[in-house]
Amino acid sequence: MKSNTFAGEYEDGFAAYKRRDYKTALAMFAKAANKGDAWAQVQLGAMYSDGRGVAQDYAQAVSWYRKAADQGTAEAQYNLGVAYYEGKGVPQDYNQAASWYRKAADQGDAAAQANLGLAYYEGKGVPQDYIQAAAWFRKAAEQGHALAQFLLGVAYDGGQGVTQDYNQAVSWYRKAADQGLAAAQHDLGAMYANGTGVPQDYVEAHKWFNVAAAYSTDKEVRDKATKNRDLLAKKMTPAQLAEAQKRASEWKKK
Fold this sequence. Notes:
By secondary structure, the chain is mainly alpha-helical.
């Protein structure tokens, strides 16, 4: 991916970063970044953002992201969009966030496409437009972006920006669930529990609720999955419960 004249300094910095020698990584990235190396500027910005090898400084992170973004680096454009969306290192500005997301999204950056879709879905920085939201979710989902796959599933589930199609909702929920996205695992479980888009199957529903409850880092999703799993268990036979628990224990992220 690197092909510029500062590749040596960048690669030395990257090697130091991989061995967790963050101070050396910072110094090497800084040398290349100060000479105009866009990828080094991105990495330097990330180190300031994360506080690795240097005191955390969002304003410095933004400054380096901007230098790389102005050179057309999609990852930097995306990171700059996130900074404006969250108001870290710059005043919060949804218009600027959407603008930078679009620059990266137009280059094919999946994370930027997903976030631009969310901007359209929520009407933040752009007029609310479910059709545009679904279109951008699809671009990212087709690249394997788990959150976009889930959000496209939500769009099909609710008929927002696309014709309502429960089969498609299940298909996209499953893709995201298989990647470990707990919200998708929960919603896939709900589809099985209700027989929506798939034949009703309490064993599969319980499995997915259980997996979501076990792996979610989001308390709201975890609590919802636990509640629905336990409610569903009351409708199941001991044999069904045993099979559901077996499937959940055997589940692995793809």
